[in-house]
# Entry
Amino acid sequence: MRPLDRSMRRLGALLLTVSGITPAASVFVIGSAVIAQAGTGALVAFLAAAAICVPVALAYAELSSAFPVTGAEYTFLGRALGPAWGFMALGLNVVGGALSQAVTALGLAAYLSVAVPGLPTLPAALVAVGISTVIAVLNVRTNALVTGLFLAAELLALAAVTSLGLWHEHRSVAQAIIHPVVATAAGRLSPTSLTAIGLGTAGAIFAYNGFGGAVSFGEELKEARRSIASVILVALVVAVICEAIPMIAIIVGAPDLASILAASSPTSAFISAGGPWFSKAVSLGVALAIVNAMIALTLMNARYLYATARDQAWPAALNRAFGATHPRFRSPHIATVVMGALSAVACLLSLRLLVVLTATGIVFIYIGVIVAALLGRRTGSTAQGAYKAPWHPWALVAGLVALAGVVVADIADPEVGRLGLAANVAVSVAFAGYYWLFVRRRGVWRLTGAEGPLTSSPPEQGAVP
# Structure
């Protein structure tokens, strides 16, 4: 199997990673869902999520430095915890990657409808998935340039919305944080419950998610072991700044809080307060940002499939297909098309359901990554990495406790939270069962990086030596 081309430097990886996070889409699509869930408590949710993501980013940085492999979490958990755990991450990533892409596609259709009234949502989303899939087949350096240009438009849109909110302040940040309120079915305001804020925090984690995606380009990044940790940490800082500040501006600058919180898309309702031309300009900027995110997400998702095929995680025919690279662009083109097709199918689900399922899956992944970092340091399996997370192990333990709190909030919510938990547990169990019943019996699975196998011998008894 031909390796990916090491043609990218740190800046290119950072542009692709931040584009995958897509701060504008995170604010205007996921942030809108968080506001609908938690009201002004969305500020608490976004600040809490930022604090939770710090130890997660430290864990990603250490593991990525040790294993700068496109398999990312699948590789981390498979190496540190054992193959069955790696296959759980594989399932969550493949399913969650398709769902995330569908979230961005449906969000794109919603914002395009502002500029093009009457635009049908599903066809627009499917066309967007198709276009981003075609672009993602191109050389990764070309994609880094394209996403960098889109990212500039994205940041301008965020700056415009931030200015609108902060220049027309209607309430203080302290008021929104200390006394959070949410819209009721009757259109009134009532105090936000802790459960709603907890669920909103899961959504906010989803909004920041993607900083660890830098490792997806680890095999195309020059001097990856030394460079990748800084890309991950800088990407998180950029995400928090570019998302938390606009969210503050929207909450404090909302002129009619009750109507905006009760709107089907609170952020769209806020943008409309700036007038029709402002609304159209910002909506187009958000649309460009979402296209940018879709390209970056497709790149990352395809590289997951490529890595798993190289490890012989699938039946032989699928391994050959997913592991193939384009003769000209050196990209995993078949894996790219497959992930695009899965994303198109996921577009048939509702946006609210997609956000819940994806957010909970990300929490599961984060818990696994932190545990892998803790055990990797203890067993020495990450010793070859150039970066070591500071404040070990207390920062990582604090992250685990915080993530456990998000899971408790999910359990406390019978309508949405428990559904997300059940679905992601089912995916994890299904893929662990797939490993034990099929892959392990074949005895051909082995974690592999660009330089060759990451293990000295085939895994036995559910553990990688």
User: Anything to note?
Assistant: The longest strand covers residues 181-183.
